[in-house]
Amino acid sequence: MADFRVGETDFLVDGRPVRLLSGALHYFRVREEQWDHRLAMLRAMGLNCVETYVPWNLHEPAPGEWDDPGALGRFLDAARRAGLWAIVRPGPYICAEWENGGLPHWLTGALGRRMRTADPEYLALVRRWFARLLPQAAEREIGRGGPVIMVQIENEYGSWGSDAEYLRQLAEIVRECGIRVPLFTSDGPEDHMLTGGSLPGVLATVNFGSKARDAFDTLRRHRPDGPLMCMEFWCGWFDHWGEEHAVRDARDAAGTLREILALGASVNVYMAHGGTNFGGWAGANRSGELQDRTIEPTVTSYDYDAPIDEAGRPTEKFWRFREVLEEYADGPLPAVPPALPVLGGPVRAVPDAWAPLAEVLERLGDDEIESPVPPTFEELGVDRGLVRYRVRVPGPRRPFSLRVTGLRDRAVAYVDGVRAGVLTEESGTLPEPVAGPAEVELWVESLGRVNYGPRTGEPKGITGGILHERQYLHGVRARGLRLSAFGAEAVDRVSFRTPPGGAAGLYRGAARVASPGDARLELPGWTRGFVWVNGVCLGRYWSAGPQDSLFVPGPVLREGVNDVWVLELEEAGGEVLLGPV
User: Fold this and answer.
1) Which BP terms does GO give this entry (predicted)?
2) Which of 343, 94, 366, 101 lies closest to 231, judged by CA?
3) Where are the domains of the chain?
């Protein structure tokens, strides 16, 4: 069996110096049926290694309840079949533009500021998770004939904190779980980040998108010895709803890649292939030095302007990177694998059945609870989805302004059953005053939990109160509607009727497909919500852009009739269109 080590100047395999040419590909953002194709694309680009994060919240949605915790092992087996080494980054925090940075909502809701520290309660939960996860990596280490060569401790911890004891104990836990390959940390190339995020005796790496020499000079001030590695070479970027699509010139990105390699360093291209934030798992950011500005939710596509696009196809950036990487290959690069099948032609689906949100909530929602103040999503146990808050305005009283404080993130408001406006965190007052008595409904949606910076882990829902003039309204009734509740059997229990045209609610239709394959789904005239095809949640759509269609992997479709559900939260359109990518 092979041996992988970190030498004084190089990575070593059986004592022979090697350069790691890695690419990020997150198994949870790609359909498992397409893993082999995507990994073959990495090899064809000239890479010898694949890197993946592991999102804790995906695999433990509730304490002690596991959802496919063996996925990492199967992905590592696929990497071995592809002839790639593998770098595993298990967190427990991963950032990754993923909901809550990968941390479970039930953990951050309960522990708050104690997360990502040496707090015993937090570490006990991490130990339980790692004991379930990491043996999959340990069993597939290079010394046991597998692909795993390195495992990361935490992730960009220097951007968050300075608890050296936490990092030390985390490394101990990883070793207790059977990991024997070298450990490493990764941080931005800043003194305070490397000081707070690195660990004595553990390889330190840096993340950047340009100015490679400056970044490595900073790393060398902290670590005079050891191999140089850019653990995240940001060759593109991600998008936020309502902003422009991020694009990086292919030749510019290839020039930086060439600079990294010319300096003798190893590299991990982030992202080599981004994939998709299926299931509403996209995270969010907050801008400003103190992250005190409004929420910036990440779109469903995680294309990242990567060299391999969301549908797995080579881009110009792929070919420019391949030219650079070919110079460092041991021999001729593999041929680019054949493209996967695409949808045979355009398909039009008209949703012919509809149910109002109240009916959907009645059939699929959690039990309603009453509380003096509005409970948060975390207090209700809701990860992704909606919460309906109901409160009564006493009367008789004259019209006053009605506002919501601490709203995260967006609410559609109804007064006595009539839509009264859309509220946001920065604009939380209804446009028209409300007189009493009145019944107020607020359908609050999380746009994605913050995944980076000091506001990671902040709660969702109404975190302040509901005020009529300056008076808090108490006796709030709340009921959650989780995205995970939308299974086929559950949706069959909903009482559908003829669509009224334009109303919010759950729409059901069918698309007849003759030749399944990768496709794009468009919703012209629709506003904001979520889409399912054959029970698979493709993610959020939003007319705010820049994303104007959703990727539908070929394995999701079937020959014949395909079920399409659209949960529209504001104003519906008409037809749903499927077309080839």
Assistant:
1) carbohydrate metabolic process
2) 94
3) 4-326, 347-353+503-580, 357-483
Is 357-483 CATH 2.40.30.170?
Answer: no
The one catalytic residue in 51, 60, 99, 156 is 156
Instruction: Classify residue 506 by burial, with Cβ atoms within 10 Å: 0-12, 13-18, 19+.
Output: buried
- The residue from 60, 154, 232, 570 that is catalytic is 232
CA distance 234 to 120: 35
State pLDDT tens for residues 302-349: 999 999 999 999 999 999 999 999 999 989 999 999 999 999 999 999
Does 4-326 carry CATH code 3.40.640.10? no
How confident is the prediction for the chain on average, in pLDDT?
A: 97
Q: Say whether 232 is catalytic.
A: yes
Superfamily of domain 347-353+503-580: Galactose-binding domain-like (2.60.120.260)
**Distance from C-alpha of 207 to C-alpha of 229, rounded to nearest angstrom:** 9
Task: With a cut of 70, say whether residue 289 has pLDDT above it.
Answer: no
What tokens appear for 149 in the block? 């060569």
Q: Is the pLDDT of residue 290 over 80?
A: no
310 is catalytic: no
- Closest by CA position to 351, among listed 243, 472, 503: 503
pLDDT band at 1 (very low <50, low <70, confident <90, very high): confident
Of 226, 260, 264, 223, which is closest to residue 9 (Cα–Cα)? 226
